[in-house]
């Protein structure tokens, strides 16, 4: 796999950093998640392929163990508020001195500088600060965040993983590590570059929810079907729009021009009425194989069995029977091989990882009895 041999230490976080770590693990990196001790509960649902070490970083001995892990690693991924790592004596100045090849990735909401740098926040706040949230929502309604997809995952976890891969690539030339300051505000904004750079086209001149691509246009929206499901319509170009009209059984001559914005409300009413006359399956049968750009709106439970996704193997079932998306993109020679086993328990790999990183058995036992580390091997659970 592309990232085989890359050793990553990920400090346990909420959602974006776990996703970043999972991407790296999916593509072959050996990711160790460092969890808290004292019966901490994991909220990491993105733990595929990771190992877990439970380590108390509030204790200087725990900090020393952590430093030893970082000396032998390629990447450190930390998701804490600005200043937290420095307070523990684990800032980049300390760790890069000990391991100049270390890639020190800091994934935060607001970045490492600026007046918000130390503020708590979540996806919706970062999205708001990126400018994008102001554009998201229906006409005459308040802004709506599209789940926590844009800042946490696209602008956060994915962008940070990209930064790490870039830094690894650069390190192969320079031999040096570096610090990555991944701000979810900036990552989200960057993902939204199209919005800034397409303003000159007039694509966003109308209020929120009244533009062509934000549900303003009737040919770029969803429609309810007779069985309470939905179809997605994205028939922008005239040749594709013609196929939409044909599939709906409408006659062009009876309809206003596609780009007559003042007629969009009437056109939407027509589409709404027609879509409501057939089931999703019936519409899918009509539009499949055409260029009308009309697809069923599938639920998470349905995507796996759609013939197109099945053919490509776009979703896979792990050993627990849980279905997840296959890692993307697909590389022809060194594709990702996502782990099919269950997620790790907190501290499940403490002992084996410390051994791997050169700790003696006696040292491990000492750390264990001092409560610096916790071990939770599966054997002990039986
Ligand atoms: C919208 C998303 C977030 C969605 C997440 C939800 C899915 C989950 C959030 C809460 C979960 C529920 C909850 O946990 C209760 C249940 C638990 C149960 O197990 C499951 C069900 C639950 C209901 C559970 C269900 C779900 O999982 C949840 C609902 C986001 O937007 S995520 C993006 C958030 N933002 C960032 O990541 C930006 C950067 N980070 C930050 O700004 C801050 O970290 C943050 C997120 C604001 C949190 O701030 P906080 O004050 O808590 O922490 P920090 O200031 O960063 O400091 C960290 C402290 O931890 C110490 N520490 C770290 N590691 C160790 C260690 N190994 N040992 C000891 N100590 C450690 C560190 O020293 C810091 O200590 P200090 O505070 O003393 O400095």
TrEMBL record:
<comment type="function">
    <text>Catalyzes the interconversion of (R)- and (S)-stereoisomers of alpha-methyl-branched-chain fatty acyl-CoA esters. Acts only on coenzyme A thioesters, not on free fatty acids, and accepts as substrates a wide range of alpha-methylacyl-CoAs, including pristanoyl-CoA, trihydroxycoprostanoyl-CoA (an intermediate in bile acid synthesis), and arylpropionic acids like the anti-inflammatory drug ibuprofen (2-(4-isobutylphenyl)propionic acid) but neither 3-methyl-branched nor linear-chain acyl-CoAs.</text>
</comment>
<comment type="pathway">
    <text>Lipid metabolism; bile acid biosynthesis.</text>
</comment>
<keyword id="KW-0413">Isomerase</keyword>
<dbReference type="InterPro" id="IPR050509">
    <property type="entry name" value="CoA-transferase_III"/>
</dbReference>
<dbReference type="InterPro" id="IPR023606">
    <property type="entry name" value="CoA-Trfase_III_dom_1_sf"/>
</dbReference>
<dbReference type="Pfam" id="PF02515">
    <property type="entry name" value="CoA_transf_3"/>
</dbReference>
<dbReference type="GO" id="GO:0008206">
    <property type="term" value="P:bile acid metabolic process"/>
</dbReference>
<dbReference type="GO" id="GO:0005739">
    <property type="term" value="C:mitochondrion"/>
</dbReference>
<dbReference type="GO" id="GO:0008111">
    <property type="term" value="F:alpha-methylacyl-CoA racemase activity"/>
</dbReference>
<comment type="similarity">
    <text>Belongs to the CoA-transferase III family.</text>
</comment>
<feature type="region of interest" description="Disordered">
    <location>
        <begin position="309"/>
        <end position="343"/>
    </location>
</feature>
<protein>
    <recommendedName>
        <fullName>Alpha-methylacyl-CoA racemase</fullName>
        <ecNumber>5.1.99.4</ecNumber>
    </recommendedName>
</protein>
<dbReference type="InterPro" id="IPR003673">
    <property type="entry name" value="CoA-Trfase_fam_III"/>
</dbReference>
<dbReference type="InterPro" id="IPR044855">
    <property type="entry name" value="CoA-Trfase_III_dom3_sf"/>
</dbReference>
